[in-house]
Amino acid sequence: MTYNKKDIILSIVLMIFIISFAVVFTVFFKQLYYFDINYLNIDKISGLSVETIKENYDILINYQSIFYQGDLNLPDFTMSVAGRIHFQEVKTIFEVIQVSMLISGIISIILLIKRFKEKEYRFLRLTGIITILIPSILGFLVAIDFDQAFIIFHKLFFRNDFWIFDYRTDPVITILPETFFMHCFILIVLIIVVFALLCLIFYRYKQKQIISDTNL
Known about the structure:
Elements: H1 5-28, H2 30-39, H3 42-46, H4 50-63, H5 81-117, H6 122-144, H7 146-157, H8 178-215
Helix pairs in contact: 1-5, 1-6, 1-8, 2-4, 6-7, 6-8
């Protein structure tokens, strides 16, 4: 099957939207962390109450929003200069992802309307294929050694070692276990895979519909 320029462009834009949406949804899906508080015994490890942990986590996550302007102040945790800088860098990355989601989402809607009017659906197949490849490759690499993948990720996105927290100067790390981030990664991959499969399923549905209409 051949794809024209319109198919390729729309597929890339849709892929960007799907991936950025998966990340944004996961970051702001606080219920995952709430579940992990009990599942990972975060309250026992940190020595804080569940309510205190939730309060501080909510502040940390709300800080990541593009609509939040101001400094990060956690009521129950002190922060080193390096720790504060790291959270600022994380916020910058998430803001870029949120903007990417909004822009790619708007462009996707416009291009989708045009392609559907033209009754062209090949882009759905291409989107499904290229989108599902990414989490498959990443998932395989992470499954081999999540700890190493976690380190590589930070070295790629951060030009310093401020992400290496010392619980004595940045005790907030006691409520952010590495396993929680693994759960976040799993959710991101699942969301991407679901969207990719939906694209492939809808493509097959539309193709069958076209064949059925042609035979009438």
